[in-house]
Specification:
The chain is an all-alpha fold. The chain has three helices and no strands. The relative contact order is 0.17.
């Protein structure tokens, strides 16, 4: 009985470790996605601002009467209009990427909490293995129930950790 209990708890500890490491990698991956999306959001917002600045400069040139040639004035007005028309799309892209950053960060935090919970479950399993092993080696009866209770607590944390990232 003791040997079987120790073997089952050892398998649970190994599964807990496997799941915990998987959550750790997933959390890091999600954080990397957030960093990349943040860079893209900044680039997109900078492009939006550049378009707005160019539009303002073109408008100032037109309003100030700096450009006197009719064909050049038409071309500047057309370019200014193009800048103005395309800038909202850049702003929308930047805002969408910013939301993606927030979502990735939130999911990464959830995965990290799951990782920590799974690590806690693994710790309970490892302590339970020690108690069951002592019960087997020293033939002390009360160590087996203690190990089983600790592995039960480990199972609760394992289930909680697995459900946290859903």
């Amino acid at each position: 009985m003791n040997s079987l209990a120790a073997a089952i708890i050892a398998v649970l500890a190994a599964l807990g470790t496997l799941f915990a490491h998987h959550r750790s990698v997933a959390a890091l991956s999600e954080e990397n996605k957030a960093i990349i999306a943040q860079g893209r959001a900044v680039d997109s917002y900078n492009a939006y601002e550049a378009k707005e600045i160019r539009f303002t400069i073109y408008q100032a040139l037109i309003a100030g009467g700096v450009v006197r040639d009719g064909s050049a004035l038409v071309r500047i007005k057309r370019v200014a209009d193009d800048e103005r028309r395309s800038s909202p799309a850049m702003l929308a892209e930047s805002e969408a990427l910013d939301q993606q950053v927030k979502d990735s960060e939130a999911h990464g935090e959830t995965l990290m909490r799951s990782y920590e919970t799974l690590q806690l479950a693994t710790t309970f399993f490892e302590i339970a293995i020690v108690f069951v092993s002592i019960a087997t080696l020293a033939q002390v009866r009360y160590f087996l129930p203690t190990g089983l209770v600790l592995s039960g607590i480990g199972l609760i944390f394992l289930a909680t950790g697995l459900l946290q990232a859903r």
